[in-house]
Write a structure and sequence with these properties.
48% helix, Rossmann fold, five-stranded parallel sheet, single chain, 5 helices, alpha/beta, 5 strands
Length: 125
C-alpha cells in the first residue's frame, strides 16, 4: 500500500489523530483536517487517493463537505463515518457520490477493507 494518500476529515481531534496513526502503521499516508472547510482547502492544494469524512461536524457538515469534494474531484472515493446510529445520512451520502459509509466506533480492519475496495474500483475505472 505504498504511497496511498488518505485525507481524514473529522472534528474529533483525538479520534482523527488516532485513526491517522493506525493507518500509518499499516503503510498509508494520512493527512488530517478538523473541519470541512479545512479539508476542502487541503483537497484543492494536494492530491489524495481516498477521503474519509465524518458526517456530523459543526459548520460545514459532512454532506455539504461531500458535495464540495465531488465538485473538486468527482472520481475521489469518499468513505463516510457516522457515529449517531443512523444510516439515513450515510445512504444520502452514497446518493450524492460517496463510495460507502461506516458506523463509529470504527473497526480498523473493516475500514482498510473499504479503502482497498475503493482503490480497486477506482483503478478499474
Amino acid at each position: 500500500m505504498d504511497n496511498i494518500n488518505i485525507l481524514l476529515i473529522d472534528d474529533e481531534s483525538e479520534f482523527v489523530e488516532t485513526l491517522a496513526e493506525r493507518l500509518e502503521l499499516r503503510g498509508y499516508v494520512s493527512k488530517t483536517a478538523g473541519d470541512g472547510e479545512s479539508g476542502i482547502g487541503m483537497l484543492a492544494n494536494e492530491s489524495f487517493d481516498v477521503a474519509i469524512l465524518d458526517l456530523m461536524m459543526p459548520g460545514l457538515n459532512g454532506l455539504e463537505t461531500l458535495k464540495q469534494i465531488k465538485a473538486i474531484d468527482k472520481t475521489l472515493p469518499v468513505i463516510l463515518l457516522t457515529g449517531h446510529g443512523s444510516t439515513r445520512d450515510g445512504m444520502e451520502g452514497m446518493r450524492i457520490g460517496a463510495f460507502d459509509f461506516l458506523m463509529k466506533p470504527l473497526d480498523i480492519d473493516e475500514l482498510i477493507g473499504k479503502i482497498k475496495l475503493a482503490l480497486n474500483k477506482q483503478s478499474k475505472g
